[in-house]
Design goal:
By secondary structure, this protein is mainly alpha-helical. It contains 4 helices and no strands. Keywords: Membrane, Transmembrane, Transmembrane helix. Pfam families: Iron_permease.
Length: 141
């Protein structure tokens, strides 16, 4: 049942996101608008578009959310495998389950490490630059 629904949700989300589907929806809205004068812009005429769009929107929310959930889990699993199989820190595996406070703390730790690495890089560049100028002075003498 899960596999069948996943297949249905993926196909529906793919079709719903296509340019052809958009054009069909535009054509339906235009046809509805053109039909307005023939129906005297009645409440029934208005109810048709309101009910149709409400039902489609309601169902699409759940289909798209299901697709997003599966994509999120698949992406997270791939990232976890990359972290596990590389020199990256394994503490990052599973961080999607942390609280907002814990995620903020981990993010700040990463920013501090990045600043430290940038400072080291800046010092190295300055030293190379200094040596380059000292080297030029030594070759001139």
């Amino acid at each position: 049942m899960d596999r069948l629904f996943a297949l249905f949700a993926n196909k529906t989300a793919h079709v719903a996101g296509s340019p052809l589907t958009f054009l069909v929806c535009v054509a339906v809205v235009v046809a509805w608008a053109v039909a307005g004068p023939f129906f005297g812009f009645s409440e029934t005429w208005q109810l048709v578009i309101n009910t149709g769009t409400t039902i489609v929107t309601f169902l699409m929310v759940f289909l798209i959310q299901n697709t997003q959930n599966r994509d999120g889990v698949a992406l997270q699993t791939k990232l976890d495998e990359l972290i596990r199989s590389s020199n990256a820190q394994n503490e990052f595996m599973g961080i999607e389950k942390l609280t907002d406070h814990e995620l903020t703390a981990l993010h700040e730790k990463c920013e501090a490490a990045a600043r430290s690495n940038q400072a080291t890089l800046d010092r190295t560049r300055a030293e190379r630059h200094r040596r380059g100028h000292d080297g030029e002075a030594a070759t001139k003498s």
